[in-house]
Amino acid sequence: MAIFQTNELVSALHEVRREWREFAHRQQEGGERELPSREVIACVVKQLTGALFPMRLGPTDLRQESEDFYVAHTLDAALHDLLAQATLELRHERRRTAGELAELGGEALSRVRAFGARLPDIRRLLDSDVMAAWNGDPAARSVDEVLLCYPGVLAMIHHRMAHELYKLDLPLLARIVAELSHSQTGIDIHPGATIGPGFFIDHGTGVVIGETAVIGQRVRLYQAVTLGAKRFPTDADGNPQKGLPRHPIVEDDVVIYAGATILGRVTLGKGATIGGNVWITDDVPAGASVTQASLNARP
Fold first, then answer.
1. In principle, which of 56, 112, 152, 261 could form an S-S bond with 201, CB 3.0–4.6 Å?
2. Interstrand relation of 273-274 and 255-256 (parallel, antiparallel or unpaired)
């Protein structure tokens, strides 16, 4: 006699899936996989990271004379895998919206080629992020330590890739890349967020940056900072309106210390300093310093 009644569980789970598909009006054609794979995307990100930084984040036995060969081989494999995942996302979206499926292959290829063409610019942006961490942290002993060890840099490697996918209208792939980083670092950056060069997240745990946030150049954040939304406008039926600007604008050279919460479409002016644990829902002028009110208690 079987210890576990798996036949009954299989039947019950089958019924739950049937109920969900009927409720969601899902009709799976041909029985093939509908959605991109987190595992494949994680492999693609690892390959692309190695191709961007071959001698530091590539294979341990790589020699410099073989660097270009490794990059060529790795890029070819990664972009082919990305193409397959992009095709799955586009097919899923078209079926969901009853769109045209005929040109999927060409559209996916065009978007992945555009993504590949952006990789040199992604590398330049990441170099600026690494240098920002090196210059901004007296504990850093080398730029190599920063690249190998800092969670903020790992988060930005993912974000720079995810943001390009987001701009190429592959939001599901972009979100998967972002969530892979979130699970590893505790840093939650929506792929829609626009972040300028020289961005440094120190320590990083608990940082949240929303979809429509706009961050300028040479900005520094510490742990547990939130750049979030204050409220969610709704339509006539009470449903949240998607895509509206609802997160902060952070101008160049702003520093935001640990635990600060900035909500809504407010602007932190150039060179402003935001102290730890403050709550901001209004604009901050350029060069201003915002800190908690202090109480001088006397006996």
1. 152
2. parallel
Distance CA 145, CA 127 (A): 13
Does the structure show a pLDDT above 70 at 30?
no
- Provide the token pair at 78: 């990664």
- Indicate the average pLDDT of the chain: 92
In the chain, what are the domain boundaries? 32-186, 193-299
pTM: 0.90
Looking at domain 32-186, its CATH class is mainly alpha
Asked whether the predicted pLDDT for residue 161 surpasses 80, the reply is: yes
C-alpha distances out from residue 296 to 91, 276, 279, 290, 293, Å:
63, 19, 21, 18, 10
Nearest CA among 161, 146, 151 for reference residue 186:
151
d(CA 78, CA 171): 18
SS3 assignment for the chain? CCCCCHHHHHHHHHHHHHHHHHHCCCCCCCCCCCCCCHHHHHHHHHHHHHHHCHHHHCCCCCCHHHHHHHHHHHHHHHHHHHHHHHHHHHHHHHHHHCCCCCCHHHHHHHHHHHHHHCHHHHHHHHHHHHHHHHHHCCCCCCHHHHHHHCHHHHHHHHHHHHHHHHHCCCHHHHHHHHHHHHHHHCCEECCCCEECCCCEECCCCCCEECCCCEECCCCEECCCCEEECCCCCECCCCCECCCCCCCCEECCCCEECCCCEEECCCEECCCCEECCCCEECCCECCCCEECCCCCCCCC
pLDDT reported for residue 298? 40
Residue 25 has pLDDT above 80, yes or no: no
The pLDDT value recorded for residue 240 is 79
The fold for domain 193-299 equals UDP N-Acetylglucosamine Acyltransferase; domain 1 (2.160.10)
